[in-house]
Model the fold of this input.
Amino acid sequence: MDKEYIAGLKKNVINAIDVSRQTDDDEVLAVIDRVLTGAAEERYMSIPERLKIRRDFFNSIRRLDVLQDLIEDESITEIMVNGHDRIFVEREGKLGVCPVCFESREKLEDIIQRIASGVNRTVNEAHPIVDARLPDGSRVNIVLPPVSLEGPIVTIRKFQREMMSMETLVELGSISIEAAHFLEMLIKGHYNILCSGGTGCGKSTLLNALSHFIPSSERVITIEDSAELIMNHLPNLVRLESRNANVEGKHEIAIRELIRTALRMRPDRLIVGEVRGRECIDMLQSLNTGHCGMSTAHANSPEDVLSRLETMVLLDENIPLQAVRSQIASAIDIIIGISRLRDSSRRVTKICELDGVKNGEIKLRTLFEFAEEGEDDGRIMGSLRKVNELKHTDKLTAAGIGGADG
Done:
């Protein structure tokens, strides 16, 4: 069926909707059905064709237009809109061009405003960058001209509807069963853990899986820019989310403010979704004052994440570098390195223990390390092997867990 005819039907639907009052989804669908029934008397439509047009019209009017089917497609993990006529998607770690696109730039801009207003965010030429989330929790980044030269840009990181368990990660080969048991022991022993890795390598997925090891008796507070951690299995859970400044540049609530507030809420464990800026010093100080915590940070390796933490602290604080390194070494017990390998698989590649500051440098002691063993039909083969025993076992002893072997 030609595009002009479909566009005419859609215009008829929009004109038939009563805009003088709030209409619900059922009323909109009834209008669509009435228009399509009339159209079917003029031109033949097969049942599958009619159902598709019905869904497309409804998604365009009430949902996110062509993005809706992509969001509901569970095989897609990321959606990248580069202007109204180019959409890319990621499936199983591989990027590809999507055959659908928006009918016009104006339609894409309308969908962008719908997304932003849904979470009380403002995006326009004066404020062309915004982070938001969809009702299902999927993370959205929006960039508008003049910052974007390609037109409106939308990037959606799909929300994981079902939290991936540690058992599933073991089955997928993302982590060894020995390392999983080891991390379970550390969680129960209240070790402070930082998950590090690049974009899309699975840091939040691992953090979610680790949360299953948290005892149900604990009061857990999560702090995120855009809420995406799934920890509903914890009965005493408090979720905090930052807030951007309004159009006047006021009323911002930053991550660091939420960390300070959380410390007054009697947390047993503090989980910061990602540390990426000036809040780093607040997180380190909270971990150095008797609080237990977990977080993630972008870095290529556990070694690199130490430099990132130092830089983040020094962004806002005039503290000697040696003092910063002492804070980091005292606050964080374990760094987990996660990588996205060349076959697109996501693996835990390193688990390191911080071993204090020696000769002015923070020392890392590798406990587990991934060893590559070749390839099989394009998939990287290898195993996460234990290379050293845990040296600092004082927290395990205090928790009555025993030695490093659990």
About this structure: The domain at 166-398 is CATH 3.40.50.300 (Rossmann fold). Residues 234 and 266 are 16 Å apart (CA to CA). The first strand starts at residue 76 and ends at 82.
